[in-house]
Protein 1
Amino acid sequence: MLSEPMINRLNEQINLEMLSSHLYLQMSSWCAYKALDGCSALLSQHADEEMAHMRRLIDYLQETGGLALVGGMQAPPKEFNSLQEMFEKVYAHEQFITSKINDLVHLANTEPDYATLQFLQWYVAEQHQEEFFFKSILDKITLIGLEDRGLFWIDREIAALAASGSKEVTAIESTPQI
Ligand code: OFO
């Protein structure tokens, strides 16, 4: 049985996960519009992942007798000055989501609600991985640069990531010829 404050916070997180999904879907469309197909594919996959995160929360609320609420939300931003700016926004958004997960963990710990505390561990690990993943992409953008054919090579790198379905950015797979 969940407390009222916990039900409210889990419902807030449901809507944050949906917001994340909408944001990445809009970014995916922006990339497709700019012919950045690799980035578009990666962000589209990520939008699906965020919906799965939302569903996981809905299932948990239903299993514990809470009423899951799917609310409305504002449209996400649809214009970006550059690919770098867009991925900076992704990284900042993931850091924001991590702070919200941390708040939830704090609530579960102080109530205490050990079942929810355990449930949330998956989100803690996921956020760590996602922050690392998007920071690694930003690092690659800095390394390759957006000048000349940089955008092409970055999109190619990200297309490889999307095709592998991996969240591990380890090395540049195809180094541009200089
Ligand atoms: Fe950013 O992954 Fe959901 O929580």
Protein 2
Amino acid sequence: MRLTDTSDLWWKTAVFYNLDVKTYLDADGDGVGDLRGLAQRLDHLAELGVTCLWLAPFYPSPQRDNGYDIEDYYGVDPRYGSLGDMVEVLRTAHDRGMRVIVDLVVNHTSDRHPWFQEARTSPDSRYRHFYQWRDEVPDDAPASMFPDVEDGVWFFDETAGQYYKHSFYRHQPDLATAHPEVREEIAKAIGFWLELGIDGFRVDAVPFLIDGDDGPEHEFLRELRGYVSRRSGHAMMLGEVNLPYDEQMRFFGDADGDELTMQFDFVANQRLYLALARQDAAPLRDALASRPEIARGNQWGNFVRNHDELTLDQLTDAEREEVFAAFAPEKGQRIHGRGITRRLPSMLEGDPRRIRLVYSLMFSLPGAPVLYYGEEIGMGENPAIEGSRAAVRTPMQWTGDADAGFSTADDLIADIVPGGFGPGHVNVAQQRHDPDSMLRFVQNLVRHYRASPEIGWGEFGILDQPHTCVLAHAVTSELGMFIAAHNFAPDGRTFRLEIEGADAADWRVVNLLDDAAGAETLVDGGFEVSLDGYGHRWWRVIRPGERRIA
Ligand code: NOJ
């Protein structure tokens, strides 16, 4: 491990935090969150220990897909502020030691984008070839990603007199990314944001963007990554690739690691919910055991929840039904036949032991954690918004006031969560003063994650112990050795953990999270562990000659 690695490959140990400007804080009182509001809350994020913000799409957009329908790649939606306000946010975030990545949504544009408007007017339009047109719907057309909303992925445009492809909603025509001119335009937009000071991109819908997995398609991804790195030495690309592990490897660029820098771990995410439903760690343990090795410069993004439905599409039908039965018993809590529209705390009925178990896990697994705004205080969804991803896109809850301290306007961009997970019960202001709060708990996890770079850099190993409800794992590198144990069952468990190589008398384990139990234990080849029901523990192993502190 070289000294330069930790700063150059900063994403290996970053703490990501995703937020949508429009639901974060409304500074100008028009009911819509804005960049000036976000600027006022950067200290909340810095105090939490976040090291990289991921800003959801803030570009001009008709907002028919929450901003993932972009009509101008070079602007900021005027309701959120101006490019000048964006630069202030960037500058202030950087000043607080936080990097900023933005969504790159170039599989498709909005149908309001001037390119599409122009393209549909005539087959001779200079933008016609920016999109994908056919006279007939191809026989091998795939099913829509939104099967309950769209019949397919080809839509007949009366003005154009042809069908165009849309992998997502019909108002999101797919760009023809195989075309060199389209690639040039994508590169220009990337260049623009890098020049403005952005530190990287969350790349939307990557398997659709490169449309197939033959060599030339991956060549495009490799070119993009090369271009990003040339323009900005430290910039990275975190891609959305919801596929099985072996298929994900292609998107990292296999052993070369020269395509996406990072990918979300959708496999472990889905297996985690199955493990929670069964109160058995086995589904997650098996997934992690099969996680492929990635190149040194690549990283996994571990997450509990994101802004979309909690998709369970990689589970079998029977497994998905188990998770639905446990966590989304009502139809209105499900969407697209594959996902759940709830946040974790409400799925777990507010049980702090289980909620904390899950976040402890996320921060302890090899990779970099990615938080979704509001998770740090245990926000729930708005149950009144049925069968829609909008249920988890509600205003951030800053105070216990009826307006959640989000806005002074009467009419808000999204309704505030009502009831037991509403601002009266779940808010930042109250939790800041409560040492036992979720906010302080997550802050402590972040603190220990950041003090344990081996979690980002190390090698994962499952530790043997007799209980299938328990996941005990180690992450080891020359930086140190970290151990964690998590109990998915409601009753306590006691067992012994053997540590490889720890037969010398001067190996010690130091309890990390729970200060009361903070004692050091001498290791004699292993040590006794006692876990409460739904309990979690972290330890630092101090090997002979190491000068680590807890
Ligand atoms: C993935 C995004 O996360 C989702 O919100 C969006 O609807 C689709 N891509 C289409 O852009």
Protein 3
Amino acid sequence: MKKQVKKAATLFLLACVTMMSCDTSKKESEKNMIEKVSFGKTTDGQETELYTLKNAAGMEVKISNFGGTVVSWTAPNNKGVYEDVILGCDSVAGYNKGVPYFGALIGRYGNRIANGKFTLEGKEYTLAQNNGVNALHGGLKGFDKVLWTATPIEGEEPALKLTYTAKDGEEGYPGNLSVEVVYTLQKNNALKIDYKATTDKTTIINLTNHTYFNLNGNLDSDILDHEVTLNADKFLPVDKTLIPTGELKPVTGNVFDFLKSKKISAGINDTTDTQIKAGGGYDHCWVLTDSSKTLKPAATVYEPKSGRVLEVFTTEPAIQFYTGNFLNGTIKGKNGIIYKHRSGLCLETQHYPDSPNKPAFPSTVLKPNETYQTTTVYKFSAK
Ligand code: GLA
């Protein structure tokens, strides 16, 4: 009798363990399910969506099909606490009010084109002058303001595929351009962005992402204490309108040297430097020392209070390091936080600004039958 009771108890226990393990595995797979919720309406009344990508480690990245915008992104501090580390808005209404490209996909041409003009195969093209006399970040309605078609791809490394076809002549650029961007949340707390595009007419292209990072975990703070390394031995000096002069200047001996980790505050207010003056801080393109098209380390950011580390890898030849100098405390972001001056920093992997007007710069021309393809990875850890 005793034996039978023992056997029944063992069987019961076994059943419980099996049920429990089934339950846990169910929860595991649920963890990686991509959630989709409404993100509100665009100014012209179109519905937008917000997708949540989660990995098993606990990272959560929210991306909207509006502008392919990364809206929030949690990363662990050195105590394992996940907090949001990027600037953004609670719904599309915030973006509709006009924000400086928070988290957005940038195209067809990232950064500036002088006087909004360029010549390609003997023909002159005119773009909107939406930044003083220059064209900036794809125009009045660049890729940051369009609705992308989103396809969630579930799995251990969940992904969101976004596609958009820019029409021939859209924002003044030639060629129907089919763009595909895939955001993949990897197991190791990295977000990989794969960009791909083809055209039916010769055009120019320079795609990037404009996320503003603040590794503090408190978005109501500035980024001046962040320590930055840029694997770049040259940068592009700019004129007063932030167009590169054409010179590739060595960083050694000036405040643009981030070859070794350095606090942003060390040089950002050095107004004796004419380049810092021009940018109102750092707003320049650094030329990576390794010019190969392989995925290589480009930048590292360390925030000493939280211990968070962000590493950036890219196949691109350059990186625009922008310290949020134009943020001036007029934008209310997520959870009612006002984004102050320099409360976020951007690491926009890219080709050089104004390349279409600078024949000596690496080419940004895309021809029919060619495929534009680049990858950038943003990886978080803590120490
Ligand atoms: C880029 C530019 C900056 C600024 C921001 C958006 O980083 O280089 O000058 O326009 O985008 O405000």
Protein 4
Amino acid sequence: MCGIYGYCGRGEALAPVLEGLSRLEYRGYDSAGVAFFDAQGEIKTLKTTGRVQNLIAMAAGQEDAGTAIAHTRWATHGGISVKNAHPHTAGRVTLVHNGIIENFRELRAELNYTPVSDTDTEIMAALIDSEYRNDPVQAILAAQKRLKGSYALAILFSDRPGCIFTVRRESPLALMQTETGCFLSSDPSTFPQCGEYYVPDEHTVAEIIPEGMRFFAGAAQKLELAATNRTQGREGHEHYMLKEILEEPETIRRTVNRYITADGRVDFSCDGVEDSLFDVKRINVVACGTAMHAGLVAAHYFRKIAGVEVTSFIASEFCDAGVRVEPDSLTIFVSQSGETADTLAALRSVKAQGGKVLAIINRQGTVMERECGHVLHTSCGPEIAVASTKAFTAQIAVLYLTAIRMAALRGLLDAAGEKAETAALCAAESIARETLKLRPAIIRMADEIHTAKDVFFLGRAVDYAIACEGALKLKEISYIHAESIAAGELKHGTISLIEPGVPSVCFLTQETTRSRVLLSVQEVLSRGGSVYLFTTGDMQGVEDVENLTVCRMPVEKGFSAVYAEAVCLQLLAYETAKRMGLPIDTPRNLAKSVTVA
Ligand code: F6R
């Protein structure tokens, strides 16, 4: 949450920095600000509430001397206001911050400092200024010793024009040298070009000047930004969310192909993940939100294919639940961003207990990747819309590959069986592609449900896991109250909320659950509720149910149907929010990377 961006180089800095900041806006969008050296060598600061676009309008006509730092905010400490927007200044120091300072109140008292803003950030400017004796690096190093919490900072000193200093702890920060100068960003995918970039080690101070960067009290890891990992524009689509849904056939294909050999075996050696990691009796999957739902879906695979017991945890509950990590277990952390604070905290807790860990991450070069060590990748490229879509189907695919590998290692699948499973997985690409053709039918459903106050999502077994994702997707972008219910649980309470006009969306893709799911559907219909059923092309008996709206997905019964269901629920949420005229890519109160616990 929150993004920082900066540039120090030849030519003007404001334009490239504000352009970069726009690409970083998915990290927060309640206010934005920029500080730069003007032609007289003075620091100027501009801040506004709302989107980066407002800041761009404000900066029009300003002249700068080639050095600027900027920030896009998701408020944690202090409301949404100009005074709380970054950059913050105290004395000779102006800075932008991504992270949370835990001891900001104690530091205010120690420094006897009266802040202008309500933020936890401003005190760092005062602290660094109080340590500043004409040596910026020493001042930052001394200040760090007194800071508790997480931070990525870009810092200007008023008597050092043409220079930016950075430092980080836990929060992400990347630096890139180009022909014209150096860029810094919370997310390397927002850099203006592909190629080499650096992630400074924690506590390392970087000095950035137009000619390059120098590291003090530490070093930096060199990484490569590939073209597929650079943030692209919407490419003609009205929203990133739609663009990302439409990309799913391709992102599933890329993700799956990375780990399937020519003879149809699963092989993770390209990522250095060895088979010995899977020599366990239990699996825990830990994640948040959509990534957690991928874990719920995958639990069914692991049990069925690999005969292994699985527990899926909400990351924010994992530590508080006091889960004891057994030596014969593997804990899998799933995260698109690789920086979700709750998932990271759970990872640290499992590692501290000596547990085996594996992460499934989409973004490159993340804190989670470095800390986990064993990482499998979803190859989706940057996901910009706040609502996760293509990462979800890719996470499910990687978890499925993991279940296949475990099954083979446990002797539950022979070579032919493994080949058949991977072939079924390769078909997910075309399932997703064919499912996109259901969009007109889904638009008609969205037309009907967009006026609802509540929508219920029903399913059993793996379809319940999908229902959980359906409800999350709808509520986060349409603001309609949506709730997922295990269909069998309906009669234990929630059915009291069903009355005429209340819509439910039901998923049915498994033969084993058919009759009981249809019974639940009948119960809802009998109470005047309307039901939209997503089911497979070969599911029998659904047409016998009166007043049921059926959407047949282009897939047969079985686990492969989850790719079709995922695309349907994402399109349904998208089309509903679109019908309501809402800001689909940037829903209120949310941010893409949740870096606060
Ligand atoms: C929902 C959504 C969130 C994320 C969750 C975890 O559409 O995007 O629920 O799935 O915040 O984020 P990552 O996967 O980055 O750890």
